[in-house]
Amino acid sequence: MKFTRIACAAAIVAAAPFVATAQDWRGWNIHPEGYPNSVALDQFVETVNAETDLNLQVFHGGVLGSQPDAIEQVRNNALEFGQFNMGPMGPIIPTTNVLSLPFIFSSVDHMHKAMDGDVGEIFAEAMEAEGLVPLAWYDSGSRSFYNSKRPIVTPADVEGLKLRVMNNDLFVDMVAQLGGNATPMAFGEVYQSLKTGVIDGAENNYPSYESTGHFEVAGFYSITDHLIIPECLCVSTESWNALDDDTKAKVMAAARASAVTQRELWAAREQESLDKVRAAGAQVNEVENKVAFQERMAPVYESFLAANPDLGVVIEAIQAVN
Ligand code: GTR
């Protein structure tokens, strides 16, 4: 009799569907385990779980979907947090597109200085109104072109190349100004597309060029440094607003601490990745005349400002930080 009752209770427990509570937060990350961003996110999750009543879980490797979809999911609170590059954010939150303008930052230090100060607040406010609260800014170095055909030294070398870009028309325009053909594509599809020749190349930082194996199928990496785009650790505005002040403070502190970790790991990983791709035979070349690439971007700025006249002040605010 006693046994039956226990067995019955166990069966009921086993059959009960898993019900996520308001305390359960699921997070999106595109990078594999061990990548600087992933290690920093693991630290964030561990700290928040230890110090608050929240129960966070982060899913690495983009298993919860593509980046543009995941941004929408966090905005809609279908996922509670995510670690996003600001590049694919522009089509949804126009103010953030300023961060995706080619050569907007003169260096990674310039980007940090701007994002960690008042300029960062401009983007934070715009994002919060659209469903995303950025808790901390992560590093993503600078992005350069790579392809399977030839080293790029002058803009003429880009002519005719089919290049993958992140999902944002600004990047399509950027490549068009250099005479290339850009295809917006999900990060996870790039390796296969390079391998099969659907595209000739793409653009990214060393760590992503390396971690994805793109260097195996597109061995010319040319240092144009044309984009320096920060990344955010974001929480859905709805989930954030549901927290009490004490929990908010703890989550924020954990996010900021994770960004310190991420930036430290990032600097080391850039060098490791560069060494690794070189050792594997990738040909990495300096581009002496980056100004030639920068000058080609004038029409990108012109049409951006024509479409977003109110964002001129944000561009100026960034330039004033330098
Ligand atoms: C990486 C970035 C990812 C993703 C990727 C891409 O550098 O960290 O979030 O945006 O680039 O090119 O899609």
TrEMBL record:
Residues 1-22 form the signal peptide. It holds the Pfam family DctP. It is found in: Periplasm. The keyword Signal applies. Gene3D superfamilies: Bacterial extracellular solute-binding protein, family 7. CDD domains: PBP2_TRAP_SBP_like_3 (cd13671). Keywords: Periplasm, Receptor, Signal. InterPro entries: DctP_fam (IPR018389), TRAP_DctP (IPR004682), TRAP_DctP_sf (IPR038404). One of its GO terms (biological process) is transmembrane transport. GO terms for cellular component: outer membrane-bounded periplasmic space. This is Tripartite ATP-independent transporter solute receptor, DctP family. The lineage of its organism: Bacteria, Pseudomonadati, Pseudomonadota, Alphaproteobacteria, Rhodobacterales.
